[in-house]
Amino acid sequence: MGISFLGLGYALPAQVLSNFDLEKMVDTSDEWITTRTGIKERRISKEESLTDLSYRASLQALNRAGVSPEEIDAIILATLTPDLGFPASACLLQARLGANRAYALDISAACSGFLYGLELAGGLLASGRTKKVLLVGAERLSQIVDWTDRSTCVLFGDGAGAVVLSSEGEGELLSSVLRSDGSLWEILYAERCGYIKMKGKELFKIAVRAMAEVCEEALQKAGLSVEDVDLVVPHQANIRIIQALAERLNLPMEKVYVNIHKYGNTSAASIPIALCEAYEEGKLKRGDVVLMTAMGGGLTWGAGLIRF
User: Are residue 71 and residue 176 in the same domain, yes or no?
Assistant: First the structure.
């Protein structure tokens, strides 16, 4: 399926919250957080709304793609922390950008949101009725974190990532595998107007196995092997999950992009932020085969394989 990444962008709040800052807030330590999660700091949005972050990331992606907002046919925004109950944050973003021709919608699939959005965008582009899609993952998880709960407050951060996708070009969505299991919702959830609740040990065990399975299935569907993959961009939830996944797939960590130490878990924004940084650093090049995978509340999980 032809799907080209014309431009990538990301936006991060200015405020940095380090592990040493958290030591002053809850009973924890930099050593404990780093050892168990790989996180050293995260960004917290005090002033900027989700729409603000999404706008900055989208504008950068559009500028890099050489595409005007008026050329966008659809805006898909993956988030679990919208600015309003309704309308969709994608509609607020559409108005801010002046993307007057675009229809806009939000999707809620937690940390798997970007991969769910990629599958939807791929289908729209393949139909021929949509030519260009702006796909955004954005979160303000600091708004739903209990800052007295040391088991969760150390994990999450804010940010946004965006990509401009087109049916024209040399890129390709080689395969996509998406899964969900609503019977496991209590492992990771937040009540309306409540805080994130998580059963970390249970989630860890499920995440490694489930993500490895969908990665293997995505490769099989595309007729490729692990050796054909140039870069793996996993959801940045926990360095131990990432390392265990790489080991299970028999992948060297040199092929796995990691930036969790800087931003923590930014849910739906995680993969697009990582993609953009990898491209800026020269670790992601045109023609590369890239494997992306994530797992989040729902439970939802999936894998996407692209030729960038």
Answer: no
Q: Is 259 a catalytic residue?
A: no
Same domain, yes or no: 137 and 201: no
User: Looking at residue 253, which CATH number applies to its domain?
Assistant: 3.40.47.10
What's the rounded Cα separation, in Å, for the pair 120 and 114? 10
Structural domains of the chain, count? 2
Q: Which of 246, 255, 290, 303 is nearest to 8 (CA)?
A: 290
Catalytic member of 91, 111, 153, 215: 111
Residue-wise pLDDT for 216-237, tens only, equals 999 999 999 999 999 999 999 9
Domain end point (choices 132, 166, 200) = 166
Does 235 participate in catalysis according to the annotation? yes
Q: What is the pLDDT of residue 1?
A: 67
Q: Which residue among the candidates 19, 238, 265, 276 is catalytic per the annotation?
A: 265
The average pLDDT across 63-86 equals 97
Nearest 5°: the CA angle 206, 141, 44 is 130
Counting Cα atoms < 13 Å in the Cβ hemisphere of 146 gives 14
Please answer whether residues 212 and 243 qualify as being in contact, where contact means their C-beta atoms are separated by less than 8 angstroms: no
Burial class (CB in 10 A: 0-12, 13-18, 19+), 217: middle
Helices (H), 84-112: 89-97
pLDDT tens digits for 94-152? 999 999 999 999 999 999 999 999 999 999 999 999 999 999 999 999 999 999 999 99
Q: Which of 19, 215, 235, 276 is catalytic?
A: 235
Residue pLDDT, tens place only, 79-104: 999 999 999 999 999 999 999 999 99
